Amino acid sequence: MINKDIVIIGGGPAGLSAAIGAYESGNKSIVILERDNLLGGILNQCIHTGFGLHTFKEELTGPEYCERYVEKVKNLGIESKLETMVIDISTDLIVSAINEIDGLIQIQAKAVILTMGCRERPRGALNIPGYRPAGIFSAGTAQRFVNIEGYMPGKTVVILGSGDIGLIMARRMTLEGANVKMVVEIMPYSGGLKRNIVQCLDDFSIPLKLSHTVTKIHGSTRVTGVTIAKVDDMKNPIKGSEEFVECDTLLLSVGLIPENELSRKVGVIMNPKTQGPVVSESLETSIQGIFAAGNVLHVHDLVDHVSSEAYLAGKNAVKYIQGLLDNQNKIDIQCGNGVRYTVPSTLNYKNVEDLTQVRFRTSDVYKDAYVSVYLDKERIIHSKKRILTPGEMEQVTILKKWLLERPNLKIITVIIEKE
Questions:
Q1: What is the pLDDT of residues 112-128, one digit of tens each?
Q2: Cβ–Cβ < 8 Å for 300, 306
Q3: Relative to the CA of 211, which of 130, 231, 378, 390 has its CA 20 to 30 Å away?
């Protein structure tokens, strides 16, 4: 049995930042467990720019961004075990993992930080009629083929789903010489960032067909085309609107799912909206001593937010070990009209230094609406937004002094209002 104060599961941007946060808070007994053969996570294949604008005030590629964290972790001497698969976490914080060198290892931790990231939603959930020919890829798999392996998945492409990876791959495939026919999105709005719609579709004259979906895949050995159709308000295809689109490749960008098999196995309470753990302001889950941060918690827009959130998780894990986290004075954070979920779900003013960032996504598109925050029935934030979409994560700042001024506060509500 190995003893470590803090075990971090996942060596992507969240895991690296959590490790740095814990180390800089005074704890050096840390190990990062990563199943891949190098640190950095998915950013190693994200060779496009757009990373680091908040953290480093400059525009970096994914590999450049993660390399700064990898180098810092190495310079601090933080231990990491690569090609190591975690297979179990017990409620008394024993982490079981396996790799070729050590075989089965067990680590007794004082705190565990979950930073496993997220994965792409599988095609099987979509129930598209047709065979299973070659030429169907998730957008992330296609990204790895092009950026890491040096292979082109296809020449004539249709993309189903307008998530950010799909939008980015529309541009990437076009730059590599493919003909991207269109991006098809079942919702009446895009699931990606506005800047990606402009830079990846509009700049290359790639059509975005909203309120459409793929209803059939053609081809037996290789994709020869797809049938698309318009959908009604219930997301059902409208008869007579079908259109055949010739292509040899279908890329799927239909959403991301937090990687939470380990979280569920240990018994962490999950949020059905995010499919990630329910956490407090300290990013502690329902099991004391287990923390979660990054895309394993909820899918973020920007890696900069992943890093800042995970750094806080690392700091709070150290506080937990030191016995400095209070678990008694929890105030519930409630989703009002138009708010799909909030992270965190509870707030304890005793564990907050000066402020807490509450991140959330809306449940629909809102124009010229207000993001409001109520402390019980008192409205304390009323901020007008020109547009709010589910594809863009929003946040509000709750100041500690507001909570200290209201010792009997019961509920914080985040809500979208028309006026």
A1: 999 999 999 876 556 78
A2: yes
A3: 130
